[in-house]
Design goal:
The structure holds two protein chains of two kinds. Chain A contains five helices and no strands. Chain B is 72% helix and 0% strand. In chain B, α5 packs antiparallel against α6. The chains are: A mainly alpha, B mainly alpha. At the A-B interface, α1, α3 and α5 of A face α1, α4, α8, α9 and α10 of B.
């Protein structure tokens, strides 16, 4: 593997902080939000939209999550995890396609 | 914003800073700026570092080109606050509002060079479809874009896919044209740190 560039490393530092640093939401919940997988039903509406259709998020999505017992600070963290997780997937998909393109060029 | 902590949960020092910014700029502090001051150890500090590196760090893309990428991605994501903010910043950076408007209206007929056009097209596809192929990347490289420039553009893509999502999920208030103009001046003078 080539050395990670400074920009990707700076994004990695953000990912590491929100996933493994001190927080109100559990590490497991943060990992689920980041990975957009295994979300509890009360969070699925809000976080699913953050990933796929963020313009459709409503006050009611936050209200439903709060009614299920999530605090504002937990939701602050989990929304950020969902957004950064989607960006990390896009970033890595782009870098992987680039690496394939460069390898194909070198082999041709 | 949708979470009350993002409206009022700041320390006294931060509230004073917001009041001073508002006093001197004669504009409300944009929600994008407020967000990174809330519990900055969780998100703001590292987000600012990454975004500044992507938008103002060393790159063969100009600052104007990167702001145009930000505006274009924000439009793909239909993120109203970010479209306003980065259209204003790109227009100011290029000193050319027509060029920016043309890209946002119809990329294929916009008066920009092939390398930038091909890169924007690839970023748009990645953002809307969630993936791109090696062939998509080869098309970009064939226009003369270096592999480092592709990496740099992907960093802009990551920064704005996050910011767009947070803007719409938390409900950033859309500013007046004067508010966006003041923000654009600030971003070009100081960057994202």
């Amino acid at each position: 593997m080539p050395t990670e560039g400074k920009k990707r490393a700076a994004h990695r530092a953000l990912e590491d902080r929100i996933l493994t640093g001190a927080a109100r939401a559990s590490a497991e919940q943060r990992a689920s939000a980041f990975g957009n997988a295994d979300l509890r039903p009360q969070l699925d509406g809000l976080l699913g939209k953050v990933v796929a259709r963020p313009t459709e998020v409503t006050d009611a999505d936050f209200a439903a999550a709060q009614a299920a017992g999530f605090s504002e600070d937990e939701l602050f963290e989990l929304v950020i995890c969902a957004a950064v997780g989607q960006s990390a997937r896009l970033y890595d998909a782009g870098l992987a396609a680039l690496a394939d393109a460069v390898a194909a060029e070198e082999n041709s | 914003m949708r979470l009350e902590v993002l409206n009022s949960g700041y320390s006294t020092g931060t509230k004073l800073l917001f009041a001073l910014i508002q006093l001197f700029s004669r504009q409300p502090v944009p929600d994008a700026a407020r967000l990174v001051f809330y519990r900055p150890d969780f998100y703001g500090t590292r987000a600012k570092e990454f975004t500044h590196e992507a938008m103002r760090g060393p790159s063969a893309w100009s600052v104007a080109d990167r702001e145009l990428m930000a505006a274009y991605l924000s439009q793909m994501n239909e993120s109203a606050f970010c479209i306003g903010a980065h259209t204003a910043t790109a227009e100011r950076a290029y000193q050319d509002g027509q060029k920016v408007a043309a890209v946002l209206a119809d990329l294929d007929s916009a008066p920009i060079a092939q390398p930038l056009m091909a890169t924007l097209r690839m970023l748009g596809k990645l953002t809307s479809e969630g993936k791109v192929s090696a062939a998509d990347m080869q098309e970009v490289l064939a226009t003369g874009v270096s592999s480092q420039q592709v990496e740099d553009a992907l960093a802009v893509c990551a920064a704005f896919n996050t910011t767009n999502r947070l803007a719409d999920a938390f409900g950033f208030e859309v500013l007046s044209p004067e508010g966006f103009e003041a923000g654009a001046k600030y971003l070009l003078r100081r960057g994202y740190r």
